[in-house]
């Protein structure tokens, strides 16, 4: 393989394709949130329970996590392009399943396949973006998924509200985008040389080095709070807004997800060069305040206050994840970072789906608003406990100095 293919910056092609790679990543995460505004419509049309609704959401997160853990390093051995192409192919099939869906079984199958596709593609896309531009790649890796989720939720809810074919148009547009990307990918230069040893990478390795365990215990409550909030928004926010405010507009669900994820992306961009401890302090504070405002809005039935709380909580969501990751990862030695990152992602994705599943079960007996009050209360408690842990740790360091 020539130098220009191994290093795309030799002839500038890799940098020129950075925008394309970011667009593909954006579309994957737009597709991940596209079903969110439709969940309530599916539930009304097919008459399934809130438990099944959260199962449909959770199987995506669990299949994505399992795929990341097993296939996260695949592109280091097979090359970026073939792995991204496999992810696109699987995502195309998942879009077809969504379009053809006639009951919950189809939705679950589509979500599982979508989780596998996203897990395979996003790790390869993230690596390819870093290969292409060492400066802009990390930033785009951080904020593109959040912009994608906002676009998917808001775009789908707008199409449902104002366009024909409410159950299929968003998937059709995404399908067309993925097909076009699969063909364009043939023009993108490969950035790594394929190598043997791929089977060794298929054994997931989760480990937290001894020197990182204390910090993990401090940041974990904040990380769980942030991801649990994200899981709740992406699964139950549209149903909650209808139950709490009486508004039946599908746009509300899209605006809720967009408010959370866009403010999260902005906070990541704003705090990316600041000290990670500051980012985590900001994240914990804004999470606790934002969720408290959301709970007040739910109990008062005020839609505008809910969106205000979502924006504040979104700042906390992005800042908490950024701060926790940047505080934790430097504590691992080079040969330990992959296993620590895998462990951190596993904990994050479990927090993303398991609490939402428990909420779905609780709704059956306690109701949606009561379940939200308990769920939000736990999120606030976790954020406050993480904030207290950080301040205690900071005070101890100051005394030691």
Automatic annotation (TrEMBL):
Pfam family of the protein (one): MFS_1
Subcellular location: Cell membrane
Protein name stated in the entry: Multidrug resistance protein MdtL
Claim: Transcription regulation is one of the keywords in the record: no
Membrane topology value: Multi-pass membrane protein
GO CC annotations on file: plasma membrane
SUPFAM superfamilies registered for this protein in UniProt: MFS general substrate transporter (SSF103473)
PANTHER family linked: RESISTANCE PROTEIN MDTM, PUTATIVE-RELATED-RELATED (PTHR23517)
Keywords per UniProt: Cell membrane, Membrane, Transmembrane, Transmembrane helix, Transport
Molecular function in Gene Ontology: transmembrane transporter activity
Domain Major facilitator superfamily (MFS) profile: 1-401
Residue stretches spanning the membrane: 49-71, 83-102, 108-130, 169-186, 215-237, 249-271, 278-298, 304-328, 340-362, 374-392
InterPro entries xrefs: MFS, MFS_dom, MFS_trans_sf, MFS_Transporters
